[in-house]
Amino acid sequence: MTPSEQTTRAWTSLLSVGQALLGDIEAELQTHGLPKLSWYDALFEIEKAGADGIRPYELKERLLLPQYGTSRLLDRIAKAGLVTREDVIGDGRGQIIRLTPKGIETRKEMWPIYAEMLIKSVQQKLSQPELDELVRLLGKLASTNKLRSSIP
């Protein structure tokens, strides 16, 4: 079976637009001397976990990254002093990840740039009904439970 021309066009458009928007956000963060967007996503998820912190495997599920990608990201963020890794008592391999004050501040510095880019790149280009429809359509495409949980 061969996908229709419209299916192929929709797929390539979805990927192209997504990559372009992410690239624009990354460039704007870099212009302001801030870390990559993946750092924001990780810091935000760790912050949402609260004072109890989060286990790396839980973070991996929330970020939809492979285990090695999450480990590398955590290594870089920890090296920058944005998170701490604390051993879990009674679990030789377990860790809890918590934000440091510097991590909290970095995430807060990143958000206004990220938010501005979302407004400029998406909100100002689509009407509210178009945004609603886009969310609805993307929800239909999110056919796995992992994807469904990441789409509001």
Notes on the structure:
The chain is globular, with a radius of gyration of 18 Å. Strands 1-2 form a two-stranded antiparallel ribbon. The mean pLDDT is 91. It has helices at 5-31, 37-49, 56-63, 67-79, 101-123, 128-141, 145-150, and strands spanning 83-88, 91-99. By secondary structure, it is mainly alpha-helical. Strand 1 and strand 2 form a beta hairpin. The protein has one domain (26-150): Winged helix-like DNA-binding domain superfamily/Winged helix DNA-binding domain (Arc Repressor Mutant, subunit A), CATH 1.10.10. Helix content is 68%, strand content 10%. The longest helix has 27 residues, at 5-31.
Question: What order do the helices and strands come in, and which of them pair?
Answer:
Blueprint: H1 5-31, H2 37-49, H3 56-63, H4 67-79, E1 83-88, E2 91-99, H5 101-123, H6 128-141, H7 145-150
Helix pairs in contact: 1-5, 2-5, 3-4
Write out key terms for the chains shown.
152 residues, mainly alpha, Arc Repressor Mutant, subunit A, two-stranded antiparallel ribbon, 7 helices, 2 strands, 68% helix
